[in-house]
Amino acid sequence: MCAGGTDAARSAPFPLDAGAIIFHWSNSSRNALVLYCPMRSTKFPVRLSLIAGALMTFGFAVASVVAAQAADTPQRIPFQIATGSSTGTYFPVGNLLSEILSHPAGITRCETANVCGPSGLIVSTMASQGSVANVVSVNGGMINSGLAQADVVSLAAEGKGPFRKSGPSRSLRVIADLYGEDVHLVAATKSKIRDVTELRGKRVSLSPEGSGTIVTARAILSAYGVPEKSIHPNFDSPEDAVDLLRDGKLDALFLVGGTPIGLIEDLLADGTAHLVPISGPGLRPLLRADPWLEPHTIPKSTYGNTPAVDTVSVDALWIADESQPERLIYGILKALYNPVNRQSLQAGREGFHFLDVSFGPKLAPAPLHAGALRYFGEAGLIKPESKAEPAPEPVRGRARKT
């Protein structure tokens, strides 16, 4: 015990060793907290306000450190891209965009300005049924963005085809035209199908409802005078359709994608199937009915030793709702078209004019997003005053006029 201690000290609840210091609550309203030193008999009163002040100062210091750390950590900005089948071309393109644009904390490559998207951006890729499903998801606010064929976006903007019930989409916007896709009509070699009209009476995969392929396939059949009821349609996934064709249970399949499509490479390379041209008398009515399709040729040797094949192409658009922040879309495009990223992007090339900035603002069936207008305007690719309103007829194969 403290020698010669006060009554309060002597009433301490346990013996005090030399050099020990304890705090003891006093009954005095004047001295709420009393400090005792057992080495001396003197009592040193310390007001609670002094201790409380010290504790508050310490608390503020800790809070300041925490606040500073929070300020240094960027807010997480989730941004999803709806793509297509995991074995198609949209899915790997979505993954590529995610890798290039995401900007989480601590990534060294993102320390260079505009190499990654806005700070805190986390881009994720989601598989889906395809273009139609993606447009529906973007329109319904279920996802931030998606990839879709231009002909499908046109139907959505006009409220036609699969969008008749929902009506015209007024808020759909284009972030950028990403690349060109070719329509592949793949026929089993044994079927001896040589043109579109010979699909009558055959087992033909049109792809699932919700895909972009089925929209384009139906437009082709109609233009070439082949009613859907005149074929035996199949609506399985492209993966299943390829297996069925290989097993002799399908005669042909339609597939839209950037060349080369890995899913059909083996079929074509080993002679199990061949590409059927989309040309001849039905081509003119097709292009008249669907102006977002363009004549194109799949180059020789794209698939093994296959010859060049005439077909039609359609552009893959990156779409979003107009409510997506202008600053966010602008920052995404600055990173996407940063020359530093060009080599990495071309390593994942799909189709033609892949992520070519000059095609980014190409005339589309829906207006450009405000952030895209700002970016492409600053890049000198469109007039600053352009409203990016869609024209009745597209200018085939060309970017917007400056």
SSE diagram, text form:
Layout: H1 7-10, E1 22-25, E2 33-36, E3 43-45, H2 48-72, E4 77-82, H3 90-101, E5 121-126, H4 131-139, E6 145-149, H5 150-158, E7 172-188, E8 203-205, H6 212-223, E9 232-234, H7 238-246, E10 252-257, H8 262-269, E11 273-275, H9 283-289, E12 294-298, E13 309-321, H10 326-336, H11 342-346, H12 370-378
Parallel strand pairs: 4-5, 4-6, 8-9, 8-10
Antiparallel strand pairs: 1-2, 2-3, 6-13, 7-10, 7-11, 7-13, 12-13
CATH architecture of the largest domain: 3-Layer(aba) Sandwich
Count of discrete structural domains? 2
The first-level CATH class of the largest domain is given as: Alpha Beta
Low-confidence stretches: 1-46, 65-70, 395-402
Overall morphology? globular
End-to-end CA span: 93 Å
Fraction of residues in helix: 25-40%
Global mean pLDDT: 85
CATH 4th-level superfamily of the largest domain: Periplasmic binding protein-like II
Major beta sheet summary: 10 strands, mixed
Number of strands: 13
Rounded radius of gyration (Å)? 34 Å
Share in β-strands = 15-25%
Order of secondary-structure elements: HEEEHEHEHEHEEHEHEHEHEEHHH
- Helix count? 12
Structural class estimated from helices and strands: alpha/beta
CATH topology category name of the largest domain: D-Maltodextrin-Binding Protein, domain 2
